[in-house]
Design a protein that fits this description.
Blueprint: E1 2-4, H1 17-34, H2 37-41, H3 45-65, H4 72-87, E2 103-108, E3 114-118, E4 125-126, E5 129-131, H5 133-144, E6 157-162, E7 172-177, E8 189-194, H6 202-207, H7 213-224, E9 229-233, H8 239-246, E10 256-260, E11 272-276, H9 291-298, E12 305-311, H10 314-325, E13 330-335, H11 339-354, H12 358-368, E14 371-378, E15 381-390, E16 401-407, E17 418-420
Parallel strand pairs: 9-13, 9-14, 10-11, 10-12, 12-13
Antiparallel strand pairs: 1-5, 2-3, 2-8, 3-4, 6-7, 7-8, 14-15, 15-16, 16-17
Helix pairs in contact: 1-3, 1-4, 3-4, 9-10, 10-11, 10-12, 11-12
């Protein structure tokens, strides 16, 4: 059962919790018997209206049979909650489009606390929303079941997708931890990263002062000319959003192959082929399909430009650099707090996973990357902190970065400034 303390439609008001729960369970059972599962899982508008009308009738009958005084507020709230449960994702629908379109992340703690992060923000906010552990598990099963996944003591950590819908076409990604490794009050630990519902335009970043118009035009021209770009930043700095924005500058006629784990970048054109990594399904003989597999396959698909999601291991890094070295243009993201850390991280990953020597890794990076863009959080706001050109010659065995722009740390939100080298 869900009670949103800020929303009177889902509060129990003068109705006692036992009666409310009894009516709710009774109506859900009736609706599940009367309507085919396929209709309830993905109803069209006419079917949704038919189900809601039946729910309203059953709720009204449930009130009368128990001698409860009619209350439009309570009955409407119960109808909405039952509708979310039988045709949607229950309490989660209160946090997803079309109800909320301002969120980028949702977190459920193993204690039951729910927090959200709004778009353009870098901090979490508590939600005044109380959800029973059983309801959280029920919603997770609805999401994980069709993906042939489940979270339990044997498989305590699960990655999954939040499916795209008509109202939430971007979908999202989900990380779930079982109480066996995330102890608390019986709740799973859940993090949901919501993807953009539509292509992100350059104006969106410029309005928020993420970079200057001159820098945006430079990066746009770099994309148009087929230069190879690496975007680096820490968690939640906006690496993927920036890469999505730069994709707007790709020439319309180009064939683009996009490799991600999971799919996240939305490029609004028909000449895009997406390749998505897939983990090994527990208990099956079906092997995983990795980001590196996707890059290797993409090289045989004659792309004009490769778009690669975040490189997290040495095999993916090796596959990407090999593709870029053999004449393929492309862009990707990497978790790193500075250009120097990006070089060291790639070198370490390729050394540990693929036994590549530091010097050979450095040569590959210098030969494969033209532009490095660093994005970070400055004074609680996302900013491109530097843009550098990668020198093709090593300096003392290391990759050398020639700075083009650097954020002036003394500048303010009102008077933004980047120093051009």
């Amino acid at each position: 059962m869900v009670m949103d303390l800020l929303d009177p439609l889902t509060a129990s008001g003068g109705m006692d919790d036992g009666s409310r729960a009894s009516v709710l369970d009774e109506v859900i059972d009736s609706v599940n018997r009367e309507f085919p599962g396929q209709v309830l899982r993905s109803p069209n508008e006419a079917e949704r209206e038919q189900v809601v009308t039946r729910i309203r009738s059953l709720v009204s009958s449930g009130f009368r049979s128990r001698g409860l005084p009619p209350s439009s507020t309570e009955q409407d709230g119960l109808v909405e909650e039952i509708g979310r449960r039988v045709m949607g994702l229950g309490f989660l629908d209160l946090l997803l489009p079309p109800v909320r379109t301002d969120l980028s992340e949702i977190a459920i703690y193993s204690s039951g606390l729910i927090q959200v992060m709004k778009k353009a923000s870098v901090r979490w906010e508590d939600m005044d929303l109380t959800v029973e552990a059983g309801e959280v598990w029920r919603v997770l099963n609805l999401i994980l079941g069709p993906q042939s996944r489940s979270v339990n003591e044997a498989t305590p950590s699960v990655n999954a997708k939040l499916p795209a819908t008509r109202h939430n076409p971007g979908g999202g990604r989900i990380k779930v931890l079982h109480p066996a490794i995330a102890p608390g009050s019986g709740y799973p630990s859940v993090n949901i990263r919501l993807f953009e519902q539509k292509p992100v335009l350059p104006e969106w970043l410029l309005e928020r002062g993420v970079m200057s118009p001159e820098m945006m035009e430079f990066l746009g021209e770099a994309i148009r000319s087929g230069q190879r770009i690496l975007i680096c930043g820490a968690t939640r700095t906006g690496k993927t959003t920036l890469l999505s924005v730069l994709c707007n500058y790709l020439p319309p006629a180009w064939r683009i192959v996009k490799i991600e784990d999971p799919e996240e970048i939305w490029i609004d054109r028909k000449t895009v082929q997406t390749v998505e990594a897939r983990p090994k399904i527990p208990g099956s003989e079906v092997p995983a399909y990795t980001l590196a597999d996707g890059v290797d396959d993409a090289m045989r698909m004659s792309p004009d430009y490769l778009i690669v999601g975040e490189v997290r291991d040495g095999r993916a890094g090796m596959a990407l650099l090999r593709a870029l070295m053999t004449g393929h243009a492309g862009a990707c993201t990497l978790h790193a707090d500075s250009p120097r850390e990006a070089f060291e991280r790639l070198t370490t990953l390729m050394g540990s996973d693929m036994s590549v020597s530091p010097r050979d890794a450095a040569r590959m990076i210098a030969a494969s990357v033209d532009i490095l863009v660093q994005i970070g959080i400055v004074n609680e706001e996302r900013k491109v902190t530097s843009i550098a050109r990668v020198d093709k010659k090593l300096h003392s065995g290391e990759v050398w970065f020639n700075p083009l722009w650097k954020h002036d740390e003394s500048s303010t939100h009102i008077h933004l400034n980047w120093v051009k080298s």
